[in-house]
Design goal:
Number of strands: 18
Strand order of the largest sheet: 3-4-5-2-1-6-7-11-12
CATH class of the largest domain: Alpha Beta
Number of domains: 2
Helix content: 25-40%
Strand content: 15-25%
Largest sheet: 9 strands, mixed
Distance between the termini: 14 Å
CATH topology of the largest domain: Rossmann fold
Structural class: alpha/beta
Low-confidence stretches: none
Number of helices: 20
CATH superfamily of the largest domain: Glycogen Phosphorylase B
Mean pLDDT: 96
């Protein structure tokens, strides 16, 4: 079975979010199952020379982008046993960053068409193209429109994974003709039409053979008006074509026993004292009072409403009356950045606001915090809570999407559970669950049990990779 995994970003070459982690760790897990998965992505200017100088040029050809013919090179690098192909075009990709340009519609139309054309040129007889999010979701449409008579393309099946429905790739309908060479028939409610524009993601949902999203709860949520982002009717109508498979994390990358970024290594058998050492060193590094009695609550997040930052804002002054220290790492909306900076200045012994992103500091926060806060408005899957559990930081989450699927709330009567959760998007509920978690913390035996359960959960890709394997096998046997 040969799978071409198309993504706009992949760790460690380019990363702006969880998609990059998935595009590295899922193919790695699938290859362990004997599936020949190869990743294809753009060759961005920001890819480190440590990687770009080692790439091998395989071939080059031209790609039709509407009336234009654009150069496309294919470069290759094998990393950690995963074959990566890179689409090279300096006009589209030799610029800082990955997204947010006025011509993103053209850039990813080119990339998607280049993936289709690459099938002719790769020494790789593709069975399935697995596309991810809006950047590549037009590929199933292009295959049906332009490659139905190609022997190399006719048998190819397509899988679309939706990592976040909010981002749909909505562009003027002229993109359909000028860049994708699609006729008027595709500007239809049952095809690409989205109000007066077109949606790449809608096209992928309709034309792919299977649609997967990144948790079972999110698969149900996006069928509703509240979460469906205008596509709830379509998603409700495709029945079993849409399923949820929860994401995992790479246990080789995220491993407190071997992590070089944290102060002291530990595992599920040695965490009690060694995790405390990480806590003390984190407090010391961030100029916070060093104390085990004070609970360190960590948060590594984009500072946007979807992550529940507005809930925190409404009760932050109350939270700071509790025996806690709040350690924030992230960037996002200017208003929220300034809010955390203000509180860090006003309460320097209780708030550490690190308005940036640092992988090294993130790992230190996971290892050094007692609890991990994730009160998201929406969370298709969430990876941070999985990493937090792996490092023994007990998650406090809202019951939505993958947070509901991966965090079992602690029951003090049975002793079962490895986190704390609240249901309604309400600041009073968030404050109440934080207070409840803090009431459990002083009981060291209970807390040790919660941390041990969190650390021994299998949130690796093992089970989910097997579910993707079944999806692939069912498509090829259908």
């Amino acid at each position: 079975m040969k799978v071409l995994f198309a993504a706009a970003e992949a760790f460690p070459f380019a990363k702006s979010g969880g998609l990059a982690d998935v595009a590295y760790s899922l193919p790695k897990a699938l290859r362990k199952l004997g599936i020949d998965v190869r990743v294809i992505m753009p060759k961005y200017a920001d890819i480190s020379p440590d990687f770009s100088t080692k790439m091998k040029h395989l071939c080059h050809f031209t790609v039709p982008v509407g009336w234009r013919n654009q150069y496309c090179g294919i470069e290759y690098l094998n990393l950690d046993g995963i074959p990566f192909y890179f689409i090279d075009n300096e006009y589209y990709f030799k610029r800082p960053g990955y997204y947010g340009y006025f011509d993103d519609g053209e850039r990813f139309s080119f990339f998607s068409r280049a993936v289709c054309e690459a099938v002719y040129h790769l020494d790789f007889d593709v069975d399935i193209i697995h596309v991810n999010d809006w950047h590549t979701s037009i590929i199933p449409v292009l295959l049906k429109a332009h490659y139905m008579h190609s022997e190399k393309h006719q048998k190819i099946k397509t899988v679309l994974t939706i990592h976040n429905l909010k981002y749909q790739g909505i562009f003027p309908k002229e993109v359909m003709y000028d860049l994708l060479s699609l006729t008027d028939e595709y500007f239809d409610e049952n095809k690409l039409k989205y109000y007066d524009a077109i949606s790449f993601l809608k096209g992928g949902i309709i034309y792919s053979d299977k649609v997967v999203t990144v948790s079972k709860t999110y698969a149900n949520e996006i069928r509703t008006l509240s979460y469906g982002e205008g596509l709830h009717g379509l998603l409700s109508g495709i029945g079993e074509k849409l399923i949820g498979i929860v994401n995992g994390i790479d246990y080789d990358v995220y491993n407190p026993a071997t992590d070089k970024f944290i102060f002291v290594n530990y595992d599920s058998n040695t965490f009690e004292n060694r995790k405390k050492e990480n806590k003390f060193k984190l407090q010391q590094m961030l100029n916070l009072p060093v104390s085990d009695e004070i609970v360190v609550i960590g948060m590594v997040s984009r500072l946007i409403k979807e992550k529940g930052i507005d809930l925190i804002e409404r009760i932050l002054s109350k939270i700071l009356t509790l025996p806690i220290q709040l350690v924030i790492l992230g960037a996002g909306d200017y208003h929220y950045e300034q809010m955390f900076r203000h509180y860090a200045l006003a309460f320097p012994s209780k708030v550490s606001a690190n308005i940036c992103y640092s992988e090294e500091l993130a790992r230190k926060i996971y290892a050094g915090s007692d609890m991990y806060l994730m009160p998201s408005l929406t969370e298709p899957c969430g990876i941070s809570q999985l990493i937090a559990m792996r490092y023994g930081s007990v998650p406090i989450v809202r019951e939505t999407g993958g947070l509901k699927d991966t965090v079992k709330p602690y029951n003090q009567f049975t002793g079962e559970g490895w986190g704390f959760s609240f249901a309604n998007y309400d600041p009073a509920e968030l404050f109440a669950i934080i207070k409840y978690a803090l009431s459990i913390y002083p009981d060291k035996a209970q807390w040790r049990s919660i941390v041990h359960q969190a650390m021994t959960r299998d949130n690796s890709w093992n089970a989910s990779a097997c579910e993707y394997q079944k999806v692939y096998e069912n498509l090829l046997n259908s």
